[in-house]
Design brief:
By secondary structure, the chain is α+β, with helices and mostly antiparallel strands. The chain has 3 helices and 6 strands. It has one domain: Nuclear Transport Factor 2, Chain: A.
């Protein structure tokens, strides 16, 4: 297993445990988050803030039925679900997530819907 595959799995495991600190620890201090081609977050503090409410208030989880990796890149086909804390309504979906390793951590994460 490559380093980026290990990181992708570690962050998924932390996500499914609702462990924000362990989740964030998988990412580089200068992490870039892209929604498609648009940058939505740059830096670890913005990244932590992006996920804080989800981890604190929501029920959620994800599975990765397919993962591909090559060198410093990994692409996950992810199936996710969430339960809104206000309405208790469940939503779910699928997304491709691309991870790129930098300095032994995830340096870029890109969501491709």
């Amino acid at each position: 297993m490559t380093r980026i595959e290990q990181l992708a799995q570690q962050q998924l495991d932390a996500y499914n445990r609702s462990d924000l600190d362990a989740f964030v620890a998988c990412y580089h201090s200068d992490v870039r988050v892209l929604n498609g081609d648009e940058e939505s977050v740059c830096g670890i503090e913005g990244f932590r803030e992006r996920y804080r409410t989800l981890f604190n208030d929501w029920e959620f989880g994800a599975t990765v039925p397919q993962r591909m990796a090559l060198n410093t890149h990994c692409i996950d086909f992810e199936a996710w679900w969430r339960i809104d804390p206000q309405t208790q309504q469940r939503s779910e979906g699928q997304v491709l997530v691309r991870y790129e390793e930098r300095d032994g951590l995830i340096g870029t994460v890109q969501f491709l819907a």
